Amino acid sequence: MSLRLCGASLIAALAALSLKGCSDDSNPAKEKAHTITLRNGVKMPILAAGTWQYNDSVAEQVVVDALNSGFSHIDTAYDYDNQVGVGKGLKRSGKPRHSIFVTTKVPGCGIQNSSGVSVDVCKTQTVDKIEMDLQQLNLSYLDMVLIHFPPCPGEDGTHKSPSESSCYAPKSGCTHPQACDLVRAQWGVLTDYYQQKKIKAIGVSNYCQACFHCLANVTEMPMVNQVQLHVGMGSNPQGFLSFAEANKVVLQAYSPFGSGGHGSSEILAGNLTTSIGAKYKKSAAQVALKWIASRNVGIATKSASKEHLKANADIFDFKLSDEDMASLDAATFAAEDTPSFLCNDPAPSAAAVQRVVV
Ligand SMILES: NC(=O)c1ccc[n+]([C@@H]2O[C@H](COP(=O)([O-])OP(=O)(O)OC[C@H]3O[C@@H](n4cnc5c(N)ncnc54)[C@H](OP(=O)(O)O)[C@@H]3O)[C@@H](O)[C@H]2O)c1
Ligand SMILES: *[C@@H]1O[C@H](CO)[C@@H](O)[C@H](O)[C@H]1NC(C)=O
Ligand SMILES: *[C@@H]1O[C@H](CO)[C@@H](O)[C@H](O)[C@H]1NC(C)=O
Ligand SMILES: *[C@@H]1O[C@H](CO)[C@@H](O)[C@H](O)[C@H]1NC(C)=O
Ligand SMILES: *[C@@H]1O[C@H](CO)[C@@H](O)[C@H](O)[C@H]1NC(C)=O
Ligand SMILES: *[C@@H]1O[C@H](CO)[C@@H](O)[C@H](O)[C@H]1NC(C)=O
After folding, report:
1. 227/230 Cα distance (integer angstroms)
2. Is 138:127 a contact under the CB 8 Å cutoff?
3. What's the average model confidence in pLDDT over 147-158?
4. CATH fold of 36-353
5. How far is it, in rounded angstroms, from Cα 35 to Cα 229?
6. Per-residue model confidence (pLDDT) at position 31
């Protein structure tokens, strides 16, 4: 048997070995640097490995590879239709459950087999979706559940994608007269699960400012809002960062390489990210992720390549200078991209000063 050292200190290494083997979470300093503390004290690993568009077998393999490449957070969703594969990957990785952070989502009522026709049906179907998430993933608790997007009142759930719904073109977000009722209904269900400790943290995704205003005065505000954010969208697109900060909501960036939007080639191979990376011996992709992490925003990124997964996890040994951060903040090559595909939020100047009453 060979002795493998976990960290710099032999004593720490031996302690870790005898307690739980050589795992990354044996080093508290490292753990702290890699997590963002949510308002309820839960530590969310900054980096999540996404699984969108993967079938069960690819998702299973990606989960195993990601967990072996330095990721400890997996992002999936009811709608990705791959939670059985994700669950198998979690088990096959052999990692203890407590060392993995699993995020999944439930559809906003109206789309993806979740009705937005009545508040009661919306509630029941939100319960059903959480139960299906637990069952498909084969887990007894979830680290985080997000409401995937704002509701689409009046739609019965037959549309598979929000982009096929009547809410897409007007980007009506939560401005429809019935939207707040559905938002509060779904949020109440998540809050119940949170209070029963079956979900450790609760949040939302693609939520507009208007949706947060629907939740004024609730006992638990969303802890996270997962939205599109990447280099090229400017430093505070549609005021989402300042609004989140003012309301103590942690943002989590999806599509950090611009997937599905504008600028992915600019991000992964453009001069700005490439030339900055060269200064730190890092790739353009690593710079793009580091820019997000440096703003205390979480990241859901995706790769089916072991090499990319390892590189994407390796962003904690350098710090971008203020000057480089400012150049990345100022990039607007993907200014057409918006944090949520359903919002018509006010301009940043108005948004930054608004505050939800809690
Ligand atoms: N809440 C929502 O509505 C929502 C919406 C979109 C996404 N998400 C979540 O966010 C996750 C990530 O977003 P995304 O799927 O849009 O993609 P992304 O992370 O922005 O980009 C993924 C693409 O980048 C490539 N890539 C990854 N690492 C790379 C590297 N180091 N060098 C070069 N290319 C690299 C991948 O190809 P390879 O596989 O070849 O590496 C893949 O084609 C999703 O999987 C999902 O979990 C959530
Ligand atoms: C899953 O997707 C991969 C890659 O696209 C493909 O090779 C494989 O056949 C798919 N598996 C199933 C069961 O559809
Ligand atoms: C749709 O949701 C119902 C419960 O609300 C469930 O019984 C059914 O299996 C779901 N269908 C799909 C395709 O997930
Ligand atoms: C669910 O996980 C348990 C162990 O935690 C395992 O015994 C069981 O086979 C799994 N079920 C499925 C359907 O994979
Ligand atoms: C929240 O409470 C404040 C103060 O009581 C009240 O003015 C406001 O209307 C409430 N908002 C909602 C959406 O209930
Ligand atoms: C490339 O980016 C660097 C860093 O922002 C900048 O100094 C340089 O002028 C850029 N070069 C070109 C050709 O755009």
Report:
1. 10
2. no
3. 96
4. TIM Barrel (3.20.20)
5. 18
6. 47
Question: Which segments of the chain are extended strands (E)?
Answer: 35-37, 43-45, 47-50, 73-75, 101-106, 142-147, 199-205, 224-228, 250-254, 298-301
User: What does the pLDDT look like over 319-350, one tens digit per residue?
Assistant: 999 999 999 999 999 999 999 999 986 655 44
Mutate to test the pocket of ligand 3, among 132, 135, 136 (most ligand atoms within 8 A of CB): 132
CA of 251 to the centre of ligand 3 (A): 30
For ligand 3, atom 6, the nearest C-alpha belongs to 128
Prediction pTM value: 0.91
Residue type, 51: T
Report which of 206, 148, 155 is spatially closest to residue 176, judged by C-alpha positions: 155
Residue with tokens 């997962």: 226
Cα 90 from Cα 51, distance rounded (Å): 13
Domain boundaries, the chain: 36-353
- Which residue type, as a one-letter code, is found at position 356? V
Degrees (nearest 5) of the Cα angle 271, 276, 277? 100
CA of 278 to the centre of ligand 5 (A): 52
